[in-house]
Design brief:
alpha/beta, six-stranded parallel β-sheet
């Protein structure tokens, strides 16, 4: 139980909290919190230990497409509550920040997001990104842009490599796991890539 983190703080409103310690952070949807995510988080914890920083994972309260299409029902692997439980009981992170994905948030450029949210609100000094991570309005920038913005504002920006497993034609991703479950019904391989049992949550009712 070395990763058990009952004291992990979950932050839902960044306007009502002050992060006293500088942090090493990563950002993403983290659907399924699969082994690729866990490798990224392992890199993050290593970064934080070397630099004497707290660890922080930043995610969103909904799928971004839901903001623009109220009828869109994303086929997500995890609910937000399942994601929170996994971070708390399996990953050993100091802070989990759940950002409300609002129209105001969606309009922020990558540079403004880094300055206004990461630097000013969350005290981020190091940002570790996944190999395919893109953020900011229009998702137009690439890693070198984030690295340049970070250099200007005192945030070190690093990037992790993709996790490619033997027997799979593409790197581990949430999209791959969703396809395995929804199209192939291949829960066994999905569980291998998640390193966690795939679960369905619901209400048990009387009847057949």
């Amino acid at each position: 139980m070395a990763n058990f983190a009952p004291q992990m703080e979950i932050i839902y409103n960044i306007d009502d909290v002050k992060i006293p310690s500088p942090c090493a952070a990563t950002i993403g949807v983290f659907d399924g919190v699969h082994i690729g995510h866990r490798m990224l988080l392992s890199d993050l914890k290593s970064d934080a230990k070397k630099a004497g920083l707290k660890t922080m994972a930043i995610t969103f309260d909904r799928h971004p497409r839901q903001l623009f299409d109220a009828n869109y029902k994303p086929q997500l692997i995890y609910t937000l509550k399942e994601k929170e439980m996994t971070f708390r009981y399996a990953l050993g992170i100091d802070y989990l920040v759940v950002l409300p994905f609002t129209m105001e948030m969606a309009q922020l450029s990558a540079r403004d997001f880094m300055q206004q949210v990461l630097k000013n609100k969350l005290n981020v000094k190091l940002l570790r990104l996944g190999y395919d991570n893109r953020f900011g309005h229009g998702r137009e920038e690439v890693f070198e842009d984030y690295k340049r913005y970070g250099s200007e504002m005192g945030i070190k920006v690093l990037q992790s490599e993709p996790l490619q497993l033997e027997g799979y034609s593409e790197p581990v991703s949430s999209s791959l796991i969703r396809r395995l479950i929804a199209e192939d019904g291949n829960v066994k391989d999905a569980m291998t890539l998640m390193n966690w049992p795939f679960e369905l949550w619901g209400t048990v009712k009387q009847g057949e």
